[in-house]
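Propose amino acids for all 375 sites.
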């Protein structure tokens, strides 16, 4: 370009550090985006919400994992981004007819082995599978039994499967809420089947039930209900019971146990879904029973999609989770309040020492909390 024709404009800028200066020449720019390296190495590079969404919708598991980490984070600045991602994923996931399957059973019932075998069968049938977990023990032990990296090796290496261990911090309600939000992210990323695994020994089955369409209970033969720690209520919420490890010497016993459970299921009142829960046998070793289980699950989804229960249940669950989120948020607001944080240990000590009645302590603390909100 002829410099003289640029006149004052060029002169003004010539001596400044301006993009209009003509450099002697620059190095060949890298052909790979240098920032990508950081993303791949999992460095804490903050992506924009659009970048997160783009990655999730493209099924990029690195970005999906990062987004889930945001959902699990306790930092308020992460929460704000996470909420936006969740809202966008919710809109996306509701376009797909996905299958959320809760899986429970006592430790040792063979859940991980079953999920590995059944999950691989599902992906071989063309499904994309996300495996999530709610593990109530993870908070106390920090080393989560459901987060063990050595579990599910085949599925871990299956490009059509995505495995995420249980979020570890927080109350069961908080952990469950995060898992529920993670379901939405996985569905938006194209996973049409989501397993939500839990250990059948406590409250967490109810949480899993409140976020799944179908509930599968794994049992083993040779142990009574009490021994297996399964409460009647959990049997009652099950859509299918499988007597697992039905192989070798155990096969015959498993069949007998199956008949017992099938009879027991008949005694329960009819389900709202119109589905008649049944009992089958399965083995992760011989793979027997797995195709039948998938067939039953497909039958269930066909039924509830036709009779409207699929949508009805999901709406009820959405409403349940609205209240759960409110409760969780109220609880956090209370416990994270400066006044409460300062006073709580003294009140607790006074109650422990018998100097103050628990209801009086709670009332006083609530009053102080309410007053702190007004100033
Ligand atoms: P989880 O605690 O419910 O997750 O149970 P695991 O999947 O860890 O299984 C507990 C034990 O049962 C392991 O030693 C497995 O090898 C064994 N197991 C699991 N599934 C089967 C099965 O289908 N048949 C047999 N024979 N053993 C199994």
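Proposal:
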């Amino acid at each position: 370009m002829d410099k003289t024709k640029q006149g004052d404009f060029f002169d003004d800028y010539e001596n400044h550090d301006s993009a209009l200066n003509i450099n002697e020449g620059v190095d060949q720019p890298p052909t790979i985006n240098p920032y990508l390296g950081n993303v791949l190495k999992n460095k804490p590079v903050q992506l924009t919400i659009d970048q997160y969404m783009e990655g999730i919708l493209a099924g990029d598991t690195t970005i999906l994992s990062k987004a889930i980490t945001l959902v699990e984070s306790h930092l308020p600045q992460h929460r704000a981004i996470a909420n936006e991602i969740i809202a966008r994923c919710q809109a996306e996931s509701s376009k797909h007819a996905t299958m959320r399957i809760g899986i429970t059973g006592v430790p040792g019932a063979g859940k991980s082995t079953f999920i590995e075998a059944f999950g691989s069968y599902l992906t071989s049938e063309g499904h994309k599978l996300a495996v999530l977990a709610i593990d109530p023990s993870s908070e106390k032990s920090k080393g989560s039994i459901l987060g063990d990296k050595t579990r599910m090796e085949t599925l871990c290496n299956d490009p059509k499967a995505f495995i995420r261990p249980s979020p570890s911090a927080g109350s069961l309600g908080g952990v469950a809420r995060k898992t529920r939000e993670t379901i939405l992210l996985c569905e938006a990323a194209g996973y049409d089947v989501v397993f939500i695994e839990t250990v059948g020994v406590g409250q967490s089955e109810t949480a899993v039930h409140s976020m799944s369409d179908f509930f599968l209970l794994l049992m083993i033969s040779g142990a009574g209900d009490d021994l297996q720690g399964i409460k009647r209520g959990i049997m009652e919420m099950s859509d299918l019971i499988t007597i697992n490890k039905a192989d070798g010497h155990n096969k015959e016993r498993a069949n007998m146990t199956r008949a017992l459970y099938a009879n027991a299921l008949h005694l329960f009142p009819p389900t709202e879904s119109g589905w008649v829960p049944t009992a089958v046998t399965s083995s992760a070793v011989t793979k027997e029973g797995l195709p039948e289980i998938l067939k039953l699950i497909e039958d269930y989804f066909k039924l509830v999609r036709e009779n409207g229960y699929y949508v009805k249940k999901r709406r009820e669950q959405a409403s349940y989770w609205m209240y759960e989120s409110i409760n969780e948020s109220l609880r956090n607001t209370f416990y994270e309040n400066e006044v409460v944080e300062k006073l709580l240990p003294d009140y607790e000590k006074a109650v422990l020492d018998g100097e103050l009645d628990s209801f009086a302590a709670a009332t006083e603390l609530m009053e102080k909390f309410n007053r702190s909100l007004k100033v």
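Residues 96-306 form a domain with the Rossmann fold fold (CATH 3.40.50.300). The first helix runs from residue 3 to 14.
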